Amino acid sequence: MLGSSSRKMAIAIAAALALALCAVPTARGQGDCNELQLDFIMIDGDATLQALEDDIVADLAEIGVTVTTRLYDNKTKFNNAMTSGDFHLAFSETWGPPYDPHSYAASWSTPDEAYYAALSGLPEPNTQEAIADMVAEVLTTTATAERQEQWADILTTLHSQATEIPFSGKSIPAVFRNRLSGYVNGLQQFEYRIDTLRVVTGSKNITLVPAGQGGLFNGVGRMDPHSYRPNEFYPVQWVYEGLVKYGPDGAILPALATSWDVEAAGDGQKYTFHLREGVTFHDGADFDCSVVKLNFDHFFAGGLVSPDYHGWYGLPGQVSSTECESDFVFVLYTADNYYPTLQELTYTRPTGILSPNAFVGGAASDPYTQNSCPVGWGTIVADGYPDVTCAGITQISGTGKWKFISQDTETVTVDGEEQTQTNTVLFERNANHWDASTDPSVVEFVTLVRYDSHEDVKNALLEGTLDGAVGDGVLDPEDVALFQSAEHEATFNVHVTDPMQNRIIIMNTAKAPTDDIDVRRALIHAVNKAAIIDRELAGLDRPVDALFPKNAPYCDLDLTPRADYDLQKALFLNCPETPNDEEDDDDDDNDNISTAGVAVIVIMGVLLAVFVGVFFYMRKREISGEPIFQPLMQHDPDTKRDEQKAHDEA
Q1: CA 535 – CA 525 distance, rounded (Å)
Q2: Is 2 helix (H, G, I), strand (E, B) or coil?
Q3: Considering Cα of 526, then 529, then 535, then 537, what sign does the dihedral take?
Q4: Which of 253, 271, 273 is nearest to 263 (CA)?
């Protein structure tokens, strides 16, 4: 056996060998990651998105990415930052039915839409302009099979550029106290079908909190059918109607037109709409073809069809002329065989039909000097178009199932600025609607109520002072799950749509470092979507790996490589062994690694030889009774004699 001194020496040399092994160069780790600084822009007050942002930021930190989040207090400021390209990351979402994929794709070449900045940095050959040309071509392709192939090419090309982090399929919830029943989910994000509600018990006047574009209800905007923010979608859908409406599975259904015919006309098409007779507006005005033509003349006048206004989608640029063949026959001509024409006529805005009494100048209103566009838009000046002077509208009056009655507002001071705050808005059922229900249990009045927080909405539902909450962003996801639980299922009815649009994180391809496709790919693979959805969205959404929902027309494609969570792949992309090495340096890297390996082997061999030599020398000295390391404690003489005797006998 080894003596005490030998054991100590062996341990010391073994420790030295261990330290030498630790000095061997190791595979890359997190400390080798490229340190990236990114700006993430968001709207302040959207609790759901802010909860997601925290988790996404934490995931990106795992691969060496530091994120600075900038919060904006309103949608306008956020949009300005996004469309000007002053960001690296920004939450967005596809538009869902009836807009995906064709109108969302058409908006990619419009400067005031989110994806414009995201695509502006794409290199040859798949530049923003090239993709825009592909989209323009498919929109005038009449053969369905050829159109499917073209959409596949567009979506495959875009997917290969890694321009967004596909996050989740977004569903729209609705929660009602059980004194109401019969609610039917809408087919669009902001389609709240309150006309389907029936009163089981209590008052036929109900209170409701609807989600707006910024989440919590904060007013309804101007409620004119020919413009955009701060208008909200749902009240425009309640008050106004178009010629046609969007139905299940993308069917085009009659609305103010009962039927239509389509035929070729030159290079384009002729659409003949047979209008519904006996319809009146909320203000008592009669509906006929002259009113339809008046509306079309206004919302497609002059520069309003340019990309800065209604030209974010294709139809305004396609309508070449309109006419009335009779009092109830309206004709629309298109410049090309534009396949989405009917579908785009279902849009909530800008093609809702306004009462002739609501135009400045009435039925004789001039679309160029008295246009229905908001006064705040001023005079529309666009190259190649006549000027248009915006005069606004004089009242809120359509033919829809709900009539606007009143709203309660007050002036408040926010961050030192005075603002108008809407507290309640009152709507009344249109009993004279052409499709009015005769069921005596229908809702008669709806009061929209403002609350300061999601928690306040939840508490009002639990206390019974609020009848319902509809839309994404009114309740926190965990609260929707709470109302679905066994504890509350006897008191509340909860409705959740199938995923109808994809929540995404846009990456700016024109701003470093997200102008690097490998950086964008690393970010895509670093985000653990499924875990975040379970943690923050109560499992209401589902992870997605593509820009558009699979159930959108032409979008059921198997796109590769998959935009899924893969931390090892993300680390490989952003944490190389030698940051920013060029491909032609690979051989030098291998030589350096080999040289280091040989050096370590030589050092270990020398240490081993020294160890063996020292070990046998120490052993020899111990046997002769002259160890190199003397004991620290002295034994008494008798003990020493006994040890020597035992040694001699051995």
Answers
A1: 19
A2: coil
A3: positive
A4: 271
Is 582's pLDDT higher than 60?
no
Is residue 426 within a helix (H) or strand (E), and if so which, with residue range?
Answer: strand 417-429
Report the distance separating Cα 329 and Cα 288, nearest Å: 9
Strands 244-246, 180-181: pairing is: unpaired
Q: What is the mean pLDDT of residues 253-260?
A: 98
| CB-based contact 363:294 (threshold 8 Å) | yes
Residue 588 pLDDT > 50: no
Q: Which one has a higher pLDDT value, 93 or 600?
A: 93
CA distance 69 to 41: 6
CA distance 314 to 378: 24
Q: Tell how far CA 157 is from the center of its chain.
A: 20
Nearest to 51 by CA among 215, 218, 232, 229: 215
Cβ contacts of 129 within 8 Å, gap of 6 or more: 109
pLDDT given for residue 196 in this prediction: 98
- Output DSSP code: residue 277: S
Q: Which residue is listed with tokens 């609305």?
A: 255
Residues 6+ apart with CB under 8 A from 609: none
Location of structure tokens 């849009």:
347
Q: pLDDT digits over 367-380, tens only?
A: 999 999 999 999 99
Cα 172 from Cα 334, distance rounded (Å)? 35
Confidence tier at 78 by pLDDT (50, 70, 90): confident
| Strand positions, DSSP E, 8-103 | 36-43, 65-72, 89-93
Give dist(CA 476, CA 538) in Å, integer: 9
Pairing mode, strands 89-93 and 417-429: unpaired
55 in Cβ contact with 534 (< 8 Å): no
| Alpha-carbon Rg for the chain in angstroms | 35
CA atoms within 13 A on the CB side of 445: 12
Whether the predicted pLDDT of 40 surpasses 80: yes
Residue 61's nearest CA partner among 641, 608, 575 is: 575
CA atoms within 13 A on the CB side of 60: 26
| Alpha-helical runs (H) found in 23-71 | 47-61
Question: At 534, which amino acid appears?
Answer: D
Q: Both tokens of residue 612?
A: 């063996």
Annotate 456-466 with b (16+ C-beta within 10 A) or e (fewer): ebbebbbeeeb
Q: What amino acid is encoded at 456 in this protein?
A: D
Instruction: Name the H helices within 265-346.
Output: 289-299, 315-318, 341-344
What are the pLDDT digits (tens) for 170-187? 999 999 999 999 999 999
What percent helix, strand, coil does the chain show, rounded to 5?
35, 20, 40
